[in-house]
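Progress narrative, work stream C.
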Amino acid sequence: MELKHIVRRAVRRWAEKIASKRAQRQAHMVLPSGSDLSKRKAGRLGVAGSVAGHIGEITVAESRPEAFTRPTSRKAEAHDAKDNAPAHLDHRLAAFAEERYELRHNLLTGQAEFRPKGQDAAAFLPLTARDLNSLCLAAHEAGIPCWDRDVSRFVASDRLPDYHPFRDYFDRLPPWDGKDRLDALAQRVSDSALWVSGFRRWMLAVAAQWMGMGDGHANSVAPVLVSGWQGLGKSTFCRNLLPPELSAYYTDSVDVANTARMEQLLVEMGLINLDEFDRIPVRRHPALKNVMQLTDLHVRKAYRRDTLRLPRIASFIATSNSHELLSDPSGSRRFLCVEVERPIDSTDIEHAQIYAQLKAMLLGGERYWFTAGEEAEIQRANVAFYRTCPAEEAFARHFRAARPDEEALSVSLPELIALLRKRQPGTLTGIGMQEFSRALVTAGVERRHTEKGNRYRIVPLEI
């Protein structure tokens, strides 16, 4: 009992001390004398000392700061609650953001983009974390009590209109004036008839893929601009094929070995330049050709746990400073190689009318894929761009492929290797059987399957 008495006396002194300090603070406030507000405040201060008899009552009084603030009406409290309700808060935030900015959701990158309202000449920029924080702080200054998660939820919602860069570009094109510009564009690179006709077909395939007219088929052909020296403007021409409005969707930063990144580029970019194609290892060529034939892809976008099935947008083009490019004759139909013999003029390209022409041709039913005959013609023309491997060189030095109507040696692969090593000791060192077999096929050697295994028909050359 004595301890309880001591505790109550200590609490009473503490409460009196607090009440005294509050009274001193209130004395400095200028209030109309005799007003109801003064009386109500004085009444509350007078009561403060009487609560010292019970600790629980003091705790309750101290947990209610509104007891010492200006009283608000129930109507005002209800109005504040309505303004801060989640639905109303979202509406206020959306109205505030849309009043200040133009916002959109880029379907290719999966990002929100913005630009200040009324600045039509300005480019849309990706909305970064810093921009989101700035938007949140600006909303606070405007009296909107939102959190950063409210801003993020709004930006990631369907309140932002979808934007597809390529569909939007083609929708805004002027009508085609009827003048053909595709042949002249191709002739900036070369006057070769195969190149001019092949480039026209390839540009139609590019536009069809951008417009979503692929019909389940990918643009699997890539032009390759080849020259023995640098400085002719090959890469500049490739880059300038895209109109300025779509220049952000061009890339020459490619790692063929990174399959996941390559697939992401297929759904985000419009044109991928395989710059310095001759530096891509031969072992990567099969994987590259597989990527070039992909149509729809399953890609995981940034900040998402699930994968999305997205249509392919990108087409391929390439440049090279070496003529030794291709290793697989059957796969060479995927590459439209052209010799560049003069500097390429990439200025004053009439993008709007070029793509308006492509659009008009496609909507008119023009074919945008290569036929088997066209692919065979490309394959024949690419003979000048094959890589000559050591195994093929060794064979060509001592033998040739037999013609169908002449007598020839019929040998197995080990027997042929033994013949080569007898004629030229040390040859084929480090070359495997599979690589040598491919070299013989490339050289046009006929292979026949017999009961004794595969036999190759060859004719020895006179030494």
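Work stream C, second folded protein:
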Amino acid sequence: MKADVSAIPAEAFENAAFNTPKPLSECTVALLTSASLHHPEQPDFEARDTSFRVLDPKRRDYLLGHWSQEVDQVGYGVDYNVVFPIDRLVELQRNGTIGAVADIHLAYAGNQFEVAGIRLDSGPEGAKLLLGAGVDVVLLTPV
């Protein structure tokens, strides 16, 4: 697997964006998972689907749409927090570690052979949506 992954070209950024963040205890935090999660009424992810689904943090009816053979779905079946730790985020808000849990969270399909659609289209679109929702920090949960 390492040999296969090492052959995939990766973007090199000359200048990394940096800002001085506010304290985490004042931040609104969103989750972004690559587990292809969606709610029952939302379409499942198709092969090569670079779109995203908006997840409601008040619901707990998340469906796992990840179809990769390399993903062991047993952990998710026992506790969805393995791939989407929304309950842990709520706990962090309650104990004051973070300011707030965002009203929206995002899910993408992580098993992509070509990521240009995410990098150029749905990634920036999702970032704009999260910024518009007042999100300060995004916790990535890659699967």
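The radius of gyration is 16 Å. No further action is required on this item.
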